[in-house]
Amino acid sequence: MRTRPLPIGCIYGFIQRRWASAEQTAEQTAAMRRGLPKKWPIAGVSHVVVVASAKGGVGKSTTAVNLALGMTSVNKGLSVGLLDADIFGPSIPRMMNLSGQPELSKQDRMIPLVNYGIKCMSMGFLVEEKVAIVWRGLMVMSAIQKLLRQVDWGSLDVLVVDMPPGTGDTQLTISQQIPISGSVIVSTPQDVALLDARRGVEMFRKVDVPVLGVVQNMSCYVCPNCGHLSHIFGKDGVKRMADELGADLLGDVPLHLTIREGADTGKPIVVSDPQSPQAEAYKTIARRVLDKLPHIADPFKPR
């Protein structure tokens, strides 16, 4: 069946409508940005780095903990804090071997608990470990506000924020209310995990948060007996995704027994076995993240 060509007037009208629609979209985007709340820095904090995954179960919290410890390991002069923004499933208390309620300063602000030289704050310090937090959105946002504004961090070079899974209210609230120096996206090489990791990258770009890079976690399984490598979640999936999205691959972390044991016992691998290949993988990621932050340089970095 032959089709009749569209009259030139129809084509011109179609282009005009598309052009008007594009202009309207740009105006709406500009208006939306003007209406966003002004970002206020966290008192005493020079840089905020958020660690996100947009999907649970990919090792985001383990990465956040070892990233913070890796920063102080590769640059001894840094002051680093760790904020657990996962209200429903806080992991930092267990992984950092911390418990008890924080004390209050004279200004009625919570004083972070400290271990391994890292200042930590988590909802897990305020509720018992086995208690389920069953809150609606408004209560969660109120808790996030308290964690952002009512903690006495003192002076920090970097605050690492362990974000909850997803791309919802918590992520938007944090992204829109405080200046964030950059985000680190964690994913396994599995295709299903990569779908959500892509959404995480796009979300941060939409809210004008720089994506410092992606971490390929559980990149391969290392047999503790013979050292054989198996790519049980696929091979180089995160690397391919990073290339497609124009993001940097910050590093690969293997699936290894000692990493899991360290997280469960409150002795992260960067502290418990700092010379191991697993710890070195986290230190490499930490160096690359620090190199992307302005005004932070490793004085002992080889030239």
Sum this structure up briefly.
With 303 residues, the protein is α/β, with parallel strands linked by helices.
Would you kindly provide a written description of the structure presented here, covering whatever features stand out?
With 303 residues, this protein is of the alpha/beta class. It contains ten helices and nine strands. Strands 1, 2, 3, 4, 5, 6, 7, 8 and 9 form a nine-stranded mixed beta sheet that branches. A hairpin with a 2-residue loop joins strand 3 and strand 4. Helix 2 packs across helix 10. The longest helix is centred in the first third of the chain and has 28 residues. The radius of gyration is 22 Å and the shape is globular. It starts with 7 loop residues before the first helix and ends in a 12-residue tail after the last helix. The mean pLDDT is 84.
Give structural attributes.
9-stranded mixed β-sheet, 303 residues
